[in-house]
Amino acid sequence: MSEAPGIGDSPEIAEIRSAVRQLCGRYGEDYWLALDRERGYPTEFVRELTDAGFLTVLIPEEYGGAGLGVREAAVVMEEVCRSGAHAGACHAQMYVMGSVLRHGSEAQKKQYLPAIAAGDLRLQSFGVTEPTTGTDTTSLKTVARRDGDVYRINGQKVWISRIEHSDLMVLLARTTPRDQVKKKTEGLSAFIVDVQAALGNGLTVRPIESMINHHSCELFFDDLEVPRENLLGEEGQGFKVILDGMNAERILIAAECVGDGLYFIDKASAYATGREVFGRPIGQNQGVQFPIARCYAEVQAAGLMVEKAARLFDAGVPCGAEANMAKMLASEASWHAGDVCMQTHGGFAFAKEYHIERKFRETRLYQIAPISTNLILSYIGEHVLKMPRSF
Ligand SMILES: Cc1cc2nc3c(=O)[nH]c(=O)nc-3n(C[C@H](O)[C@H](O)[C@H](O)COP(=O)(O)OP(=O)(O)OC[C@H]3O[C@@H](n4cnc5c(N)ncnc54)[C@H](O)[C@@H]3O)c2cc1C
User: Fold this and answer.
1) Domains identified in the chain, total number
2) How far apart are CA 229 and CA 248, in angstroms?
């Protein structure tokens, strides 16, 4: 197996890595292939990951979690992906929960976090993207109107993942029209929605048939009532609530891409060593060997940026640039490694039983979601390099 990146694991991180690897080893790649075929959800896997405390590492000990940092959480996600699993089924719980932790009232934290840590409540879903506004989040059209003790929600969302397998969703909606606020980021509010109570009572969910098994859905809100106490953070400041969770999300997704990249490299180097054509291993040809070696270097370099971003995040210092760069570099490195892995396997890469085509589809997502490469470049260009704003 190729080396994981990072400047050497601490004993605690090495222990987490080894325990997650063991747990994932009990769910072979055929398990993930079967789920991919039937659009199934890995209920047992998510349960075991939660019971072992790995999905709740970021929840502080006082609320029943492990109270560890994003660095430890990143190692969990890296190992999950490296095993051949599809982390998309569960990763969101880690970072959506962060919004409740940082912006929730004491009552909300007490109500939700211990139950999430115990695995009794699933907070797997967050609703931001809309069909007509996409990346331009502050233009979103879903509205939440105050009516006595409730907010009434009307509008539509798209690509909202795992909602069918979640008890709660953090939802972003506009509470003050855009033309009545000074800054376009104001006037948006975040809500904790009880999904089970909402279904059929103002919330309609329609699954989207898609390229990967990500359980993404369209949502339709028709006068959905959300109690006032479910407002997360201050009214009008929801963009901050969501944004705050985004750095953690980017670092964790980047860690998944590092795991995917190492998965592809392990598979490609093993196949290149074992497969003989023209009387010798194909990996003896440098035209086959060098692309794999290059991918290894790219994944290792991206891994160091993930490590840097995670350390900054855990130290509580700004890490927007590093989190974005980690996400961009790692998603490109994993995609590149997937492509090289496909090429190395020749025609067999297309056979589902080799599993590569599934991972190839899954890792492609990360150049588009949760934020596309162009938007990251625009962040670096404008916020880090101070070049002119384009939007
Ligand atoms: C499988 C899947 C799961 C998802 N899960 C969730 C979820 O759980 N919750 C959620 O809220 N969302 C989710 N999303 C949505 C995802 O975050 C968006 O698809 C993503 O942010 C891009 O938005 P868009 O698809 O509307 O693309 P658009 O905003 O329409 O952009 C299309 C393309 O144009 C480019 N572009 C747009 N504007 C500019 C510009 N100014 N300069 C340069 N390039 C630009 C973009 O980079 C992109 O490549 C998911 C998406 C997928 C595919």
Assistant:
1) 3
2) 26
